[in-house]
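// run 5 | inverse folding | seed 20
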């Protein structure tokens, strides 16, 4: 038996042992096996040796095991863990083999340069973006590492409940700077925890306000509250943005009294790790990774006060017009990326 097959067999044996010991439940046993099979196929498509991922999957399996035995509890503001295990580097190393760098791209490098100048002056930057995969933070960081490494490593992500409670997702989340919230989609599930979730969100928003007051922060938020999905024609659609969500971030930025700049950001990462076709409230979704190209589009700063329709007197309508305008920019640029 050669080194390649030996390494793979170690992974299968370890996963089987954890399953037989009832550490990894049946559902997750199948999820992890499918996840590995997708990676294996992707490596073949990329012409890369299987050995390049098996050692990473062995580490991944041990990190998942830790979550089943000792679940990590995320604070409202979680800062990436680099020691004794570097979860940030682990997550980048895990996702990187799936990316076809020869055809992936970042549009708006001049915009990124301006963003870095703003941050150096102590200003905050909020990215109003679409959201496509669990691994969007890793995809963004990987594509920005060469040109804007500081931004790649320091971005803070507003994250929903699922990536901090699903044992398969947690190891990746531990390597990110996160502001943890419960999205509207899941805040009523289960009903008896709604008040606790609302209190948690309030605490997170207070922490975010303090971060904005400090200045120099870069925060990613998806105003849709969830991931983009395919429509009935099989085309990926950018989910609509929630006007209230955008307004909340804008009001917090104003309250902080530290200059905060808002930028539309479009992600084309869907094929990397597509979400389930339908929204499910239970944890434990299947995962199908794929070797593919990914793209980012950083649009110029959006003026939150001066936009078409800004003079609408009705506050609710004005917020809806602004949210639509930002969403429309993100959608247009996403379609540009999709045709890249």
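// decoded
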């Amino acid at each position: 038996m050669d080194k390649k097959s030996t390494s793979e067999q170690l992974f299968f044996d370890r996963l089987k042992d954890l399953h037989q010991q009832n550490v990894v439940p049946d559902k997750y046993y199948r999820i992890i096996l499918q996840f590995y099979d997708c990676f294996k196929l992707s490596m073949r498509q990329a012409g890369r040796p299987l050995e390049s991922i098996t050692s990473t999957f062995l580490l991944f399996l041990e990190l998942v095991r830790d979550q089943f035995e000792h679940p990590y509890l995320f604070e409202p503001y979680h800062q990436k863990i680099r020691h004794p295990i570097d979860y940030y580097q682990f997550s980048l190393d895990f996702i990187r083999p799936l990316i076809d760098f020869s055809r992936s791209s970042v549009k708006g490098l001049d915009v990124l340069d301006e963003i870095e100048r703003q941050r150096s002056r102590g200003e905050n930057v909020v990215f109003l973006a679409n959201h496509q995969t669990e691994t969007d933070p890793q995809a963004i960081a990987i594509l920005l590492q060469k040109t804007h490494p500081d931004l790649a490593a320091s971005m803070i992500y507003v994250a929903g409940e699922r990536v901090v409670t699903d044992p398969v997702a947690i190891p990746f989340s531990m390597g990110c700077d996160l502001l943890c919230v419960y999205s509207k989609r899941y805040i009523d599930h289960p009903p008896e925890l709604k008040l606790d979730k609302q209190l948690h969100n309030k605490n997170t928003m207070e922490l975010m306000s303090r971060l904005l007051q400090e200045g120099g922060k870069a925060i990613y938020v998806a105003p849709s509250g969830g991931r983009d999905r395919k429509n009935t024609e099989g085309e990926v659609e950018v989910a609509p943005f929630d006007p209230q969500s955008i307004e909340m971030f804008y009001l917090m930025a104003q309250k902080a009294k530290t200059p905060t700049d808002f930028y539309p950001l479009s992600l084309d990462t869907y094929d990397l790790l597509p979400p389930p076709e339908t929204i499910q409230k239970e944890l434990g979704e299947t995962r199908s990774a794929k070797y593919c190209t990914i793209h980012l589009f950083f649009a110029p700063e959006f003026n939150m006060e001066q936009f078409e329709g800004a003079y609408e007197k009705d506050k609710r309508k004005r917020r809806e017009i602004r949210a639509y305008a930002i969403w429309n920019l993100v959608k247009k640029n996403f379609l540009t990326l999709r045709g890249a």
